[in-house]
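Justification of computing resources. Each target in the renewal requires a structure prediction run like the one illustrated here; the chain below, 97 residues long, is used simply to show the kind of job we budget for.
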Amino acid sequence: MKDVHKSALWALICIPITLFAGYFSYAMAHGSFTFLIIFLAPGGLFISLMEGVLDSSWSLITVGILGQYLGYFAIIHGIRKLASWFRFRARKEEPAN
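Resulting structure tokens:
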């Protein structure tokens, strides 16, 4: 449970990333969307799935930020679990001298 809590806290980094990437891609450089699509992929997936269902732009923004958070949470939690598994395997396979 402690791993989930830490991953959930680390996933909050998605909010400034989303706001910065959205501002940068729409206001500053219109050709930079191809670079920023990596950072906005989880939210973009949720928005594309809900685009026909939700009518308001505010609801799409809310779904996008929620999708970003859930996507970043899944990625961060998966990487943390994978790293701990590799650490456990490396500790287990140390040769005894």
